[in-house]
Please model this.
Amino acid sequence: MNIFYVENHQAFIAAVKREFLLDHNIHVVGNVCSAKEEFNDSYDLVLCDYDLDDGKGTEVITHIRKINSKIPIIAVSSHEKGNKLLVKAGANSICSKMEFRLLPNCIRKLTN
Model:
């Protein structure tokens, strides 16, 4: 599966890729600007954090929904408020960073 992952913390990215996403192709971007420039229809799934260096993940999700209204998007913030705002912007599901061990299950539910 091709995953577009919007996250700005390198140590977290490395751990998530190693522990939960090893069997997937991951394209990581760390900010709103890069996400808007680099997203395209070649991805099967989006993981999006809320707090980014140059803005909020809600901007990314709004942009992605204009391009692709059907792609599954999982909100992956560590804050409940951020996840709720990401869902309001168009994310389909939440997998809090505090429960990332559940990420493979969240992905299966959205993509099967």
Observations:
- The domain at 2-111 is CATH 3.40.50.2300 (Rossmann fold).
- Helices lie at 10-19, 32-38, 57-67, 80-89, 103-111.
